[in-house]
Amino acid sequence: MFRRFAPLFAVLLVLTGCATRPSEDSAAPPETEGAFPVTVAAPGAPPVTLDKQPQRIVSLSPSATETLFALGAGPQVVAVDSASDYPAQAPRTQLSGLSPDPEAIAAYRPDLVVVYADTTGLADALARTGTKTLVMPDAKTLEDAYTQFEVLGKATGHQAEGESLARQTRDDIDKIVSDTPKRSQTYYWELDQTFYSVTSATFIGQVLTRFGLTNIADGTDPNASGGYPQLSAERILQSDPDLIFLADSKCCGQNAQTVAARPGWNTLTAVQHGHVIALDDDIASRWSPRIVELVRAVADAVAKTGA
């Protein structure tokens, strides 16, 4: 999730779900296309060699979970972490992607575990049980996301589907952007109510830059604070953004009405013109194929500024 990019004290979206027990009799799906062994690696991650098509996959990354199911690899997934709430048929458990427990993961007898980061030596611990770990880091660009679709496709025996998904997602986004009138507008992207934001140096910032929008969080250095600065209410009011995107609507109940009720915010151009957009937190924080939905939401908001 993109919110993971923010400092640890940023608001975390807590998702709950029913635990799923390890299945001892899960029927392995028939092998699909793809020659094994294969060696795969996501941008910025170590390579992994898979001797055969994985039949018992554990995903500890919501973005990877969404991608696996979009590829058609869902039948191979035996467990996902507690934050992987999409699609509905994903076998959600109490496994944690933030603090993974090798013993709890091993109970699902996986032959492949997909994570977004490995800072605890998880890959080494699982390797002792013969399990491979594939790291899918936070995507820094749209191209990184497309590459991850292809990597997951190749790793799971769905290479053609991975390439097709990457191509279709790229084409859909390119078309949405090209069909949207470019406007000289400024925007504020809200991660939480303490005014943590993103700059144009982040994945989200780069997506919005494609629409010609100017980010009020950039300041003199978009890379400052790792691209996730904490703004002040005064700075936001002084910048008077044309658009406000709320990535804290589900977690924190923020919407156009709550924003307008903040001291002085009813004077903002975005508030007065009805350009406060409450986004689905999950879609706004993952680099899955649902990026297209995020891009479409931004395009709709930009188009309405000229109405």
From TrEMBL:
Q: Which Gene3D superfamilies match?
A: Nitrogenase molybdenum iron protein domain
Which Pfam family is one of this chain's hits?
A: Peripla_BP_2
Q: Where is the Fe/B12 periplasmic-binding domain?
A: 56-307
SUPFAM superfamilies (alphabetical): Helical backbone' metal receptor
Recorded hits in InterPro entries, A to Z, give: ABC_Transporter_SBP, ABC_transptr_periplasmic_BD, Vit_B12_bind_prot
Q: Which UniProt keywords apply?
A: Signal
Signal sequence coordinates: 1-27
NCBIfam families registered for this protein in UniProt: TroA_like
UniProt record similarity statement: Belongs to the bacterial solute-binding protein 8 family.
Q: What is this protein called?
A: ABC transporter substrate-binding protein
